[in-house]
Design goal:
By secondary structure, the protein is mostly beta strands. It is 13% helix and 36% strand. The longest helix is centred in the N-terminal third of the chain and has 11 residues, at 69-79.
């Protein structure tokens, strides 16, 4: 991690400007009160129940599989020297618009309570056909800066029925100037054929964490790989502007993207019938060592609880990722059952001096659609944000997305629809009471 040390010494990022003027953003349709029948949809999930036992531990175990170094070297030799985040940000030619310049329909996705203090909408043309996914930031990666930049990463996916099938990409957002967020995107891929080619990561990315120089992302159902790992210093340039993905006559293509991010490792499920597949992810720096917080997606009609758990993150700078034993196994260090279902975002945070961590869960509104609910849950009970004259619990973003805490600014970042936004954690706790 020589580069990370250099990044710290070069930290010259401009300070973020003050939050948007006023206590709240002006939302066109969001002021409408939600009916009492809707308020009852987000049922109280109750207290967290500690999950113990050998069977539970086995179901949460992941096994690391690294992409062989010769594969990565062969790919780099063919595609050219890898570039880093600074190069990608330096080529950013698309911008997000400030919330005031977004459409009323876009702003409807923002939370009612607490209100966002930063909010932006994505370029409509660039995101057409793409579904928003997880969010993480350089606040997760290190000390709030990556090199000299503050960075937000946003995942997107699509499945347009092309021969390439499903696609996933990550947009690198230069957040140095809160008044002008510019970005460029890299297609997520997986090396194949000994590093002589690559395929698209055929999966939506519902959870994503940036830890040191590694990016850990979730994968959807259908395979044994639960997480893929990417190295942000191994971004490759695509050399052919084609809709294909991988080696093409005359070069390398990435479905029209200028950059490719090849996986360097994956973590696979245990293989037990009740193996837990992470769907929501976040980073908790309040543990020692830092930990990866995970939650699974459980359908409302499944009749079973949702598992929430954490893995210790590795401390070896040369091998950032989950902490593993000699067999490559990563075991959960803490696990719970929650009565919440369809969890879309999970965050764990322990304030200084507190005896236990609080778990924040974002949930959709179920069959009614629209706005979701935000809960804070621990081993003693649960509380939800309430809003409106009828004390509705459906006050959060709609639909809810991943949660990422930027400790340096005290903000929780999330994404809903085409809106990227931040809310102070202190505001969340105040709203939760």
């Amino acid at each position: 991690m020589k580069q990370r040390g250099r990044h710290r010494r070069r930290s010259r990022g401009r300070a973020l400007r003050a939050a948007l003027t006023g206590a709240a953003l002006a939302l066109t349709g969001a002021a409408t009160l939600i009916s009492a029948s809707q308020a009852d949809v987000a049922d109280d999930p109750g207290a967290l129940k500690p999950l113990t036992g050998a069977g539970a531990a086995e179901a949460l175990r992941l096994t690391e599989h690294r992409v062989p170094e010769p594969w990565l070297d062969r790919l780099s030799a063919a595609m050219g020297e890898p570039v880093g985040v600074d190069t990608v940000l330096g080529s950013a030619d698309r911008t997000l618009r400030d919330a005031a310049d977004c459409t009323a329909d876009d702003r409807e996705a923002l939370p009612l309570s607490p209100t966002a203090t930063r909010a932006y909408c994505w370029d409509a043309e660039d995101t057409r056909g793409w579904r928003p996914g997880a969010v993480t930031t350089s606040g997760d990666a290190d000390d709030g800066l990556w090199g000299s930049h503050r960075v937000v990463l946003s995942a997107w996916s699509r499945d347009d029925g092309t021969p390439e099938g499903s696609l996933a990409r990550v947009s690198f957002v230069d957040a140095d100037d809160p008044g002008r967020l510019a970005y460029a995107s890299a297609l997520l891929t997986v090396p194949v054929d000994g590093g002589r080619d690559y395929r698209a990561l055929a999966s939506p990315v519902s959870g994503m964490v940036w830890y040191q120089d590694k990016l850990l992302v979730t994968t959807g159902a259908g395979g044994r790989d639960a997480l893929y790992v990417y190295d942000v210093d191994r971004v490759q340039r695509a050399t052919a502007d084609a809709r294909a993905v991988g080696r093409v006559p005359g070069g390398w293509a990435a479905h029209g993207h200028r950059y490719v991010l090849p996986a360097v490792a994956s973590y696979r499920l245990s293989g037990t019938p009740d193996a837990a597949r992470p769907s929501a992810l976040s980073l908790d720096r309040g543990t020692a060592p830092a930990s990866l917080v995970a939650g699974e997606h459980v359908a409302a009609d499944s009749g079973r609880p949702t598992r929430l758990w954490r893995y210790a993150l590795g401390t070896d700078p040369a091998h950032a990722g989950l902490a593993t034993d000699s067999a490559g196994h990563a075991d959960a260090t803490e696990a719970y059952e929650s009565g919440a279902d369809e969890v879309a975002g999970v965050l764990s945070y322990r304030p200084a001096g507190a005896s236990r961590s609080a778990w924040y869960l974002g949930r959709p509104a179920g069959e009614l659609g629209g706005r979701g609910a935000l809960w804070r849950q621990d081993t003693e009970g649960a509380r939800s944000v309430e809003c409106g004259a009828d004390r509705s619990r459906l006050c959060w973003s709609g639909p809810p997305g991943s949660l990422s805490y930027w400790a340096g600014t005290g903000e929780v970042w999330s994404q809903s629809g085409r809106m990227l936004f931040a809310v102070p954690l202190a505001s969340l706790d105040e709203a939760l009471g």
